[in-house]
Task: inverse folding
């Protein structure tokens, strides 16, 4: 399939709809193959017409030009294939939201083994979408443009006591998992993809944790199995012992997932490696540093580092040391995960607070607004009904205003951007009164 030639119009409309989301979906032949595999006949038209904000069945049906009964049937079927999210309202209604590519139907389509889609074909095209574009458009859109999908957590066991090493509860994987309230476990999308590509690693293929509302959704949809707190904490402890990296939903309150990532398969880590020091602010609030006199040059930290941020450098000529090399950390590549510290046999690596603190969005809505603002899709999020002329006009006007050089320079300043988002959230009405989506 080409970018526009020979593509079924409904698939092209669906790609354009996905590209208006806070996490965009740049056109690529592999993406159209993925959409062709996952979305069936009428579903393509329905999905392309869905508003960007969670909406009732009736509103979606009106936008798609079909009956509410038929829309309900399609949405229920799409739910169990990870294409949409259902948000039950206390008043008995259900609100629906079209999943983005990531974190979304890319992952959810591979979180269990199934025969209703060709997962081998899907795996090939997902890998191609990430890696087959020489411009890395999708990877750069996710990693270079501000607010990331997830945030790395420092393994608290890697930090010694003291004020310099203080870790907040929102930075502790154990606290995040313990307080989630509900838990579910599924197959890791990344390791499952690599399995179909013939590159399956030795790490557990499950160990993908959904938390709170995320666990509720994936359990309802049959995409992950409910587990208890004890199992969730055991999974976390086992992943840490294996040297896996914890990447959690990039919000402070009510995160919905925690990935236990291996550096050999994880697409997030691979994307960060490809971007190198140009990956924006994807790190914890700690960074590793080596005390050369304590380092024996064993290289365990080099092998453990998920981003290749550590190297062995030769000792200076005449140095009074038994080892011929010592470890050195490249600061702008360090993720701040602490995996290296736990592998160091001599205590030569320490984790210290970084001078500049990463600002984590408070809620899912705040993160979504920030991502839309940074990626140029905010107007579509605010005016999300393409069937209404007023929404199309206002979206075009706001997009034009935000693209003007003075506005772009102003919003590039963090304080101004934060205040702008606060003002938006002050009047935000994502779903009238829906408790799951309050800012």
Result:
């Amino acid at each position: 399939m080409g970018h526009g030639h020979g593509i079924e119009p409904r698939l092209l409309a669906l790609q354009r709809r996905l590209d208006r989301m806070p996490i965009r979906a740049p056109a690529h032949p592999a993406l159209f193959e993925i959409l062709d595999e996952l979305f069936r006949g009428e579903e393509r038209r329905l999905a392309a017409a869905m508003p960007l904000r969670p909406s009732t069945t009736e509103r979606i049906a009106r936008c798609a030009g079909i009956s509410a009964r038929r829309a309900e049937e399609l949405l229920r079927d799409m739910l169990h294939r990870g294409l949409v999210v259902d948000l039950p309202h206390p008043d008995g209604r259900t609100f629906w939201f079209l999943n983005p590519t990531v974190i979304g139907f890319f992952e959810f389509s591979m979180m269990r083994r199934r025969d209703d889609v060709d997962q081998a074909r899907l795996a090939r095209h997902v890998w191609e979408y990430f890696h087959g574009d020489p411009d890395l458009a999708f990877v750069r859109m996710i990693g270079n443009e501000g607010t990331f999908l997830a945030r790395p957590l420092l393994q608290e066991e890697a930090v010694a006591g003291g004020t310099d090493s203080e870790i907040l509860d929102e930075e502790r994987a154990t606290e995040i998992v313990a307080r989630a309230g509900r838990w579910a476990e599924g197959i890791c999308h990344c390791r499952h993809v690599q399995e179909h590509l013939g590159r399956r690693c030795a790490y557990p293929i499950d160990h993908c944790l959904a938390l709170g509302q995320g666990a509720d959704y994936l359990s309802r949809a049959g995409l992950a199995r409910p587990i208890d707190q004890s199992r969730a904490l055991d999974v976390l402890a086992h992943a840490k012992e294996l040297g896996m990296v914890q990447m959690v939903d990039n919000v402070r309150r009510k995160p919905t997932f925690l990935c236990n990532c291996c550096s050999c398969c994880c697409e997030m880590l691979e994307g960060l490696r490809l971007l190198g020091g140009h990956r924006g602010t994807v790190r914890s609030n700690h960074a590793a540093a080596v005390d050369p006199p304590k380092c024996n040059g064993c290289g365990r930290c080099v092998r453990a580092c998920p981003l290749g941020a550590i190297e062995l450098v030769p000792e200076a000529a005449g140095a009074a040391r038994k080892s011929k090399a010592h470890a050195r950390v490249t600061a702008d590549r360090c993720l701040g995960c602490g995996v290296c510290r736990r592998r160091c046999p001599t205590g030569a690596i320490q984790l210290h607070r970084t001078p500049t603190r990463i600002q984590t969005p408070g809620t899912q809505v705040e993160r979504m607004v920030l991502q839309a603002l940074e990626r140029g899709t905010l107007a579509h999020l605010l005016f999300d009904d393409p069937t209404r002329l007023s929404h199309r006009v206002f979206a075009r006007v706001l997009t034009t205003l935000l693209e003007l050089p003075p506005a772009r320079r102003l919003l590039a300043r963090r304080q101004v951007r934060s205040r702008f988002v606060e003002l938006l959230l002050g009047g935000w009405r994502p779903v009238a009164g829906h408790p799951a989506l309050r800012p």
